[in-house]
Known about the structure:
The chain has helices at 14-40, 48-66, 68-108. By secondary structure, the protein is mostly helical. The chain has one domain (14-108).
Amino acid sequence: MMFETITITxxxxxxxxxxxxxxxxxxxxxxNQVVAWLDRSWYMEGYLSLIVALGVFITLLGAAxxxxxxxxxxxxCFTASGLPMIVGSIFRxxxxxxxxxxxxxxxxx
Length: 109
């Protein structure tokens, strides 16, 4: 089986790279505050994998400013490795909630 080889050339503009990195640092500081609030409020219980995936996606948007081709390739790779984890995390949380609800039902009887 033959595979096609594609060459991606990235021309780095260090001004753009610096701005992207600065924007991502500011996003990280802001996102940390949002996640801390969600954690205190119990809103993210069972959804941590989605919160991580959103942070990764925002980072990839920043990378896309530098090279959309490279960012797209990395997005495909992260999706391949992360999607099974996200699905598994959601199923584990749903199972845990069902078990907790069953314990409550048993106690009510």
